[in-house]
Design brief:
mainly alpha, elongated, 2 helices, 79 residues
Amino acid sequence: MTQEGWSSRKIALVLYPFAAGAAGVNVFFAALIGSWMGGPVLATGWSFALGCVIGVPASIAFARHIRRLMDQAEGEAGQ
């Protein structure tokens, strides 16, 4: 089976801003919940930076999943 359409790398690059934003929000809210247990509240800049770091593997994993689904759909359409 040949791979048609976008590569998983291109999909990951397109999805990265969304993954980084979602991860940043989740880090910020996790820090807020952690503050109930005596932990520090992260500043938005730190949450944004950690979101950018966590967004890389998240977007890669999701892009691979999407690419796998695309290949599966193309394979089923050809049958």
